[in-house]
Amino acid sequence: MTINPRGGPATPGLIKGYARCARAVTCLLMLALAPGARAQQDPDDLDMPASETEGTVVTPSTPDADAVPPWQTRYGVRLAAGAPEGVGLSAVIHPRRWLRAHVGATRNTLGFGARGGLSLIPLELIISPLLELEYGYYFNADYEKLLTQLHGQPTTPATGIRRVGYHQVAGSVGLQFSPSRYVTLFGGVGISYWFIEVANAKTFISEAEDDPEITARPLNLGLSSPVAKLGLLVYFN
Fold it and tell me: Where do Polar residues bias regions lie (predicted)?
């Protein structure tokens, strides 16, 4: 028998009211706890499948040790000796791995001149193939020795043809050896073309023919010869 708090027996309606109050309190407690449970979860984990969150490790990227560093322009000097170009000293600029340029002064048995050229390095190795194309101009060359070679015998004095200028174009193939970053040795063989300017051709022809009445226009002579050279490159950077 259920006792009423007021002192009388409990009625069935009162018991049902207590049961409804208990269920309402239980529902309120569940609603209060549910948001706290959701707040403890990582928002990123709600959108990402569980299979993707497990075993994922982020590692920092490391530079490739085999990657070729970017090229920087290099500068240096070049000392070369060969035939027939003589001995020359030039400034060098190396703007690309495969391309090098030089310009400077040279001296051979005929006189002084200026010389420049391009070097192509198709492969960058310790011992690399080398292709070179050069151009030179010689000022006031001593033409007497060259006339002797052309005539086959010593020539008589002729001031008009003793000092001449001539152009030289040469191409060669060879190898270069780079034992260190700052030093390179090179050598090559090839062919050279000479273009000789004789302003007073009348003196030259009169000397050969012993005829003072001969007239002539300026004379251009061309000849070719083999080329052989060795050299040293020293870089500053």
Answer: 53-62
Read off the pLDDT of residues 132-161 as tens digits, 9 standing for 90 and up.
999 999 887 766 666 665 555 555 555 456
Evaluate whether 233 touches 76 at the Cβ level (below 8 Å): yes
Residue 222 has which token pair?
Answer: 């061309």
From residue 212, alpha-carbon distances to 185, 188, 208, 209 in Å are 53, 46, 10, 8
**Encoding tokens for residue 139?**
């000022």
- Start-end of H helices in the chain: 12-39, 43-47, 50-53, 144-151, 201-209
| Beta carbons of 177 and 126 less than 8 angstroms apart | yes
Which three-class secondary structure state does DSSP give residue 206? helix
Query: For residue range 160-214, what is the model confidence (pLDDT) as tens digits?
Result: 566 778 899 999 999 999 999 999 999 999 999 988 877 666 666 665 556 666 6
Which residues lie closer than 8 Å to 171 by C-beta, 6 or more apart? 131, 132, 133, 134, 190, 191, 227
Distance CA 86, CA 109 (A): 7
d(CA 41, CA 53): 13
What 3-state DSSP class applies to 197? Answer: strand
pTM above 0.70, yes or no: no
Nearest 5°: the CA angle 168, 174, 177 is 125
